[in-house]
User: Fold these one by one.
Assistant:
Number 1:
Amino acid sequence: MKIVITTFAGSRFDGIAVWLGGTRMRCAIPGSDDLVEFRYQKGKWFSDQGKVVEIRFYGTIFSDDDPAALDVVRVDPPLADAARIN
């Protein structure tokens, strides 16, 4: 799923969410050799350095027609709430 990350300093990066689990998400970001991990806590996303970031999700992973997506929503309610499609 495509995402756009805005840092606390205002920089913007496109990325791809490659793993969602619990309250964590790992993303591929151009120019980075490793996946970048973000944590969702108390309604906010945090970088691996503990800085607040804004993440916008683009795509369709949460759908009433997709049983697999419904399983993700049941297992990971914090991410389901955070990943409302724009």
Number 2:
Amino acid sequence: MIYLDGFEDQRQAELFAHRESSGSFGIEEMADLCIEGLSVCEGHCPSRSLVGQDRCQCVRARFECLEDYQFYENGRKQAVVMIATNALSMFGEDYEDGD
């Protein structure tokens, strides 16, 4: 990904933070993202260091606005809990069956 200069990155991050969602993500698409999760830059990311992970260039490239990203983050937390609960319940069934 091409890094913008610091001032432009900050300007874009501010616009991203204050932009309103148009609802461009469909519920199925958002659910898939929440279940599968998103990867972010590994290692040093100048944008993430400057404006934070929730407004970095990688996040801005995937989401229309901060509100959509926060919706994803909340959904992702819930999906992780549901996946873990389901996995533990399957483990518990195996344990009770003596497997």
Number 3:
Amino acid sequence: MQPRDGRGRRSGQPAASAEPVIGAGTSRIADRDDAGQAPISPEGIVGMLAAWVDVKMGEVDDLVDEARSRVAAIPDQRQLWLLAGETLVRLHALELEVAGLRAEVARLRQKGRAA
């Protein structure tokens, strides 16, 4: 099998075999016996897969818990409206105070010119 980029077989690659790697009705995992180890049983694979899924589900649960805590920290709409209303009332009071101070400054300037 040649790589997709059009180059030929590298010198370290074995030649492609015409025989199929997996026989009819057999599993590649069941046929392997690397370094004298017993083949992996389907139950072992299922166990490893279940452990992996368990780890991933734990990660998902952690992410869901984090998202829920972040959402709980966001104030609800009523609190936001109360805060906006309080800010508007304070701003109006400040505007009235500034207008009073400007009027006082204008009165003092008029008094100073008259004297």
